[in-house]
Amino acid sequence: MAIGGLLLVTMNALMKRMTDEMSPLQAQFLRYLFGLLVMMPWVMRAGLAAYRPNRLPGQLWRGVIHTAALTLFFLALPHVPLADMTAILFTTPIFVLAGAALVLGERVTFARWAAAAVGFSGVAVVVWPHLSGGGAGVWSLVMLAASPFFAVSFLINKALTKHDSPAVIVTWQNLVVTLLALPLALPFWQTPSAFQWGAFLVCGLLGSAAHIAMTRAFSLGDISAMQPIRFLDLVWSSLLGLVFFSESPTVNAMAGGAIIVASTIWIARREALERRMRAGT
Description:
mainly alpha, globular
């Protein structure tokens, strides 16, 4: 999950650069088109039959919901600093924790809720100066609106891992999003430069690898237990924002990041201890 988060934040940094140069809706389409093309060698090698999903309606519904989340996300991406964007999307794990209990029937312990709450308080430390000063504006609210859609997508993803492999799930995600994003992109189409084509290829590689890693993590354990690990994404996004966009981490970002990392380490150690105790009984 931590590796998947790092890959995803790296891809988002590159996509932020692309949305500064073209329509976010075209960037969304090209990112998923290349994500689909990246998967094609494995599809052709295994044969189309191997990628026929066991739960086609679930794959289609996840693609629709994920497209809705992505459209909101990409529209806001050019207007929100990278670290703030990541922090705002940390509301997604809260929705996932609630959904895991209500939809998947997972036992969400008090420790997991506490870790998520502490991590979310770290997010509040990061974004509060912008929200209180009005700097985040309407685009931060648009980014925030994407969170519950992403949460539903992740919950469906978790359910699908019982029936299909991570490669099948990610391939169908790329396919459905590509098809749905195309009509949104066409009115704003501009021919990409050679650099932009290469950048979208890299984004396709990073995005597909990230989603496979995260889907694999979902298949190995409770989705609710993994959500506090996502808070590490703020550390990655702060570093990438500094390197690529000269967005210097603020005192609030560093303090909030410390709180987030502490909550992540705490829940990881507690879960490991509980697993050892169960194994010993």
